[in-house]
Design a protein that fits this description.
This protein is of the alpha+beta class. Helix content is 54%, strand content 17%. The protein is built from three helices and four strands; from the N terminus they run H-H-E-E-E-E-H.
Length: 194
Amino acid sequence: MWIKRMARRMGWGRNPMRRTSDRVEAWSTLVLVTAMLAVAPWAASRAAHSVYRDDVRATAWERQHRVQVDAVLLADARRDSSDDGSPRRQSVPAIAQWSGPDATVHKGTVYTDEGSRAGRTIRIWIDDRGFLAGPPGGRNPSSDAAMVAVLTVAGIAAGLAGIRRIVGWRLDRRRMRAWQLEWTSVGPGWSRRR
């Protein structure tokens, strides 16, 4: 029963009032919905697999090229002397020294607890050249892949809906021109103006 109703709504019935533009619009809707159902799952799967693979590779690379080492503070960690009334920070900059993977000594600014004294040892992350680096990324490949899959489906749906809207707009313009043309020939007979 619902198939017949859907066929009538789509313009596939034998209704003599249906115009060619109505049938074109119905067929374009069917083609676009079919394209959505065929393309969106495939594209979402490909995009999700690609993002997942890239996130896993990036995390593995960072774990391979970043290490945690001990750094020794060379100066006390103090808050900047210019107190501007801002809330107190948990960590403040201090000068520290550490050894890189190739045993070269590096110096730089690290962040540590306020009040830490010179000579204290803190743990820092460095890259494979010995320079300061952040910890390996806090990526979540599964959630990133799921988000990309959802955005891919939404993008495809938006694109196809835009195409559908453009087709409908063009058909509406064509129908309006045809209606105006017919009204110019029929309208004077219906009105008292001559």
